[in-house]
Amino acid sequence: MQPTEMRRSTAVDGFRLAYDDHRPDGSPEIAAAVLLHGWPGDRRDFREVVPLLAGRCRVVVPDLRGFGESEMPQGTSPADYAAVAQARSVLGLIEELQLGPAVIAGYDVGSRIAQGAARARPDLVRALVVSPPLPGAGDRVLSPDAQREFWYQAFHRLELAEQLLDGNRAAVRSYLEHLWTHWSGPDYVPAPAELDRLADVYARPGAFVASINWYRSGSGTVAMSLAERPPAPSERIAVPTTVLWQEHDPLFPRAWSDRLDDYFADVQVRSLDGVGHFTPLEAPGEFADAVLERI
User: How far is it, in rounded angstroms, from Cα 285 to Cα 127?
Assistant: First the structure.
């Protein structure tokens, strides 16, 4: 693999994405995978996956709008961080680097954005490899068990979230540790040093609010699940899709995978036993294998 250093994309809607570009030596035309991180993470969510793809494909890993080292213009609104807007930046990066059609793989926020990209520009997407969230939850997201887990999405819409957390490293560190620990599977323990690094990233003034603009835009699971309706068969996501559904994700029970055929024309669902929410870190081998199968 050629050595990589962080780069920034050409601006789309004023946003420049920071990204890493891992290219096999002497293979300029090799197929590409674009890996999309989740909340509360950044492009380092794929630090265990990238080495497994080394030499097999070109791997591009961006920080999404409002995350990590990506740049944002002044005067943005929550709508600029919604799934459709985020997908525009990802598709712009694919076009800029001439990657298409590329495999887009993601989990959490990255999963929603990958799906949006496939709807908008299927010509640029070879296949999807995604973990929840996925469509089909419907009003089950309002069940008592689900609401005990999704409280944070309503909290993120409150000004109180900004007052308590934005720019407060100690509070951000505690908040991130709770979520990473609670959402992880029983055999995964988030590294304290990595939580420290993420706390530094999310505690910069304005950074926490930028990250939760995803939820303030209405792109969180609760808002999207209540608004979704099965599309006509001709409007289902057409690109081949692999879904990796975890056993121990408290946010997304496996029972919610029963309606995927209503939203995808060609979907395969694989169960990840023993795995929690953070698929690329808890099951990097399975994640990388699924990507390579679609290259």
Answer: 18
Quote the pTM value: 0.96
* CA atoms of 116 and 48, how far apart (whole Å): 25
Tens-digit pLDDT string for the chain (295 aa): 454 678 999 999 999 999 999 988 756 678 999 999 999 999 999 999 999 998 899 999 999 999 999 998 999 999 999 999 999 999 999 999 999 899 999 999 999 999 999 999 999 999 999 999 999 999 999 999 999 999 999 999 999 999 999 999 999 999 999 999 999 999 999 999 999 999 999 999 999 999 999 999 999 999 999 999 999 999 999 999 999 999 999 999 999 999 999 999 999 999 999 999 999 999 999 999 999 999 9
